[in-house]
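thought: fold this chain, then report.
action: predict
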Amino acid sequence: MAVLPVATLTRTFVRCYSHRGPRSPYSRLGEAGIMAYLSCAFVLPFVVPWRETQRAKKDGSYSTRPPLDLRYCPSLKV
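observation:
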């Protein structure tokens, strides 16, 4: 396993630090908050139906459901 010398690691750190600068803890906290919000917004709506499906499959009622009726239904003309 190749080990980089300490000077190389230090030089890389200093180069990156001087280029970007330190990140504010508030921006990291904000990013974490936004990621949590987006995760909840896009993932949580699918969790409840998935859990219901798993529960129905486990107790056997999922396979005994009547099939969905997907026939074409013309709209009513008024």
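thought: worth noting. The chain has a mean pLDDT of 75.
final: tokens above.
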